[in-house]
């Protein structure tokens, strides 16, 4: 069985825990003026419509009494490590998705600790007693169902879906609950009369493949409770990826470049956070007709440089646009052939070591600023159009 554990309003909850005068008040972690953005919002702030990545000024307009707190990313990371240590008491198979959420495979732990549900409740209790924080837990036999379950009763929720109950759990849920279904995809599914996951489940697979290509097959599998992905601990991760489904299909080349720039920043930051390097950069590209394509390039040597990853990703995008110039509904950038950052590597006689060191220092400073002030505090100029559109 799989657990998906998601800390509730993690950064904001830590601030409310550490500062009792903030409890019960709308709290935002992040800046309130200039280019400040919301890194996290307490549940009290969310009731006013405040959410992460929102400009701080907009949050203040929505809730004039909101309290802004400066981000303490090192502190949050230290507490995230304590949370992970609680997970590891029960299983070594922990796949962190971020500081505040993870998948756990407890299949081999049930003889020692009891059922998956018992383990999930014990972990929730340990987090509350030892750290003074709450988490929401989903328990299910497959990953994506566990993730849906953890989101249904937040905050401090617990939802278990047994092996025999997966289909009855999924069928009444809206199709928007499926991974990869954004607003545009939802509207197209609705036009076909597919409003619930159950509607999708009973539709013929060939019909969905004709309408949506490989994406249709992906949706059909999820709707039928098929998710073969395993829980992969960080140290064994074979790929790091990030993708974005657009509310409206994109045709503007400058905007597409901005999206690839943004995605390259996201994946390279995760790569460095995991102390890994990559030798293969890939682009995933879905057209407006839902046909999906992918291209990859193998690098001459491993890197964790945002600049180098972006350069390769843009070259792949340019090649794909020349072949497939139709409107785009999804773009993704992923990194594979991962190695440990500190592993020995063969250096080229012509490596510009000084420039490489300089770029690594730039990446380190940028990572630190974004950790402290939010993803939109500093970013590449090439990402600007997409960041501006997101706001």
From TrEMBL:
Domain (UmuC) ranges: 2-182
> What biological process terms from GO does the record include?
DNA repair; DNA-templated DNA replication; error-prone translesion synthesis; SOS response
Which is a Pfam family this sequence falls into?
Answer: IMS
Primary subcellular site in the record, as a coarse category = cytoplasm
Positions that bind Mg(2+)? 6, 100
Q: Give start-end of the signal peptide.
A: none
What positions constitute the catalytic site? 101
User: What does the entry list under GO cellular component?
Assistant: cytosol
- Return the annotated site residues (Substrate discrimination): 11
Q: Which domain of life is it from?
A: Bacteria
Q: Drop me one GO molecular function for this one.
A: DNA-directed DNA polymerase activity
Query: What SUPFAM superfamilies does the record point to?
Result: DNA/RNA polymerases (SSF56672), Lesion bypass DNA polymerase (Y-family), little finger domain (SSF100879)
Q: Which PROSITE patterns match?
A: UMUC (PS50173)
Q: What are its E.C. numbers?
A: 2.7.7.7
Which purpose does this protein serve, as stated in its record?
Poorly processive, error-prone DNA polymerase involved in untargeted mutagenesis. Copies undamaged DNA at stalled replication forks, which arise in vivo from mismatched or misaligned primer ends. These misaligned primers can be extended by PolIV. Exhibits no 3'-5' exonuclease (proofreading) activity. May be involved in translesional synthesis, in conjunction with the beta clamp from PolIII.
NCBIfam families documented for this protein: PRK02406.1, PRK02794.1, PRK03348.1, PRK03858.1
Similarity-based family: Belongs to the DNA polymerase type-Y family.
Protein's name in the database: DNA polymerase IV
